[in-house]
Amino acid sequence: MAVNKNALIRYKTLDKCFSNPYRKYYINDLIETCNQVLTDHYGIDTTVSRRQIFIDIDFMKSDAGYQAPIDSLKDGRKVYYRYEDINFSILNKPLTQDEQLALENTVELLSRIKGIPGINALENLETKLIDVQNNSSKTNIISFEENEFLIGLEYLTILYNYIKNFQVLTITYKSFKSEQEQKYIISPYYLKQFNNRWFLFGWNHQEEYLQNLALDRLKTLSIDNQIYKESGVDFDEYFDDIIGVTNNLLTEPESIKIQLSDNIIPYIISKPIHGSQKVNQNILQLQLKLNYELESLILSYGENMKVLEPPTLVNKLKERIQKLNNFY
Question: Which end of the chain has fewer CB atoms at under 10 Å, N or C?
């Protein structure tokens, strides 16, 4: 059976729906999703009939189609559709020669444009794609800074999909500062990695504020039926004035001056602490909000950094250094 372009778009769209364990797709949802994808693709209003979706499902399940293990599951009086094997996808197949060639062309393209300002992240992507191409090699020749032993990594993909599907969550959480677990109702917005840990940012429904939660302190999470509160936060700007993940929205960035030792100046110049950084002789200037992560970063440089101002930061560091001294 020949597959036309329209049908292929529908099959791929339905495939995404059926393989999504984070949302229940009823027949009207499948119709609406296919309509939206086709409309976006062609640039004009495009509709698919209810009958056509059922024909597509039958074809995808058939031997002539993809032998897809599509289940119809009852939810009260309604029925939703999902793959019995959640790992199944009609796209799960080895790369063809054409696809392998396309991958090689992509790597070549990335190698040509990676130096353009604003797309430096493509360098990591290019290297990873090359590593995929050369996966027949038995000897590892490159290592990326990742820690597969981190607690909470199992939530990363799950949370990513909940964010994409605008799903409110009930999260059981145990912070380092508390011996008891707490439950939060969260509209999840954003995932960020800092200092080799992952953090979830979302709206706390009970206390009505933007909260961040470390994934390694999550105990359980489940779907909540409350209405999702959409984010009004531009997370690119949210992290502009801070080091790390702690951002007090009621404070303003402050002018920070730090005296550097001679031997650390080349290192700070070659690896800037922040985009606001200016180095004049042995004085480092920053424009940042004060937070715990900034304090810890400064302390990590030991005797090579001495904060001159503001006084609040100087005093805070003195307190932490004194506690450290008492500990030893």
Answer: C
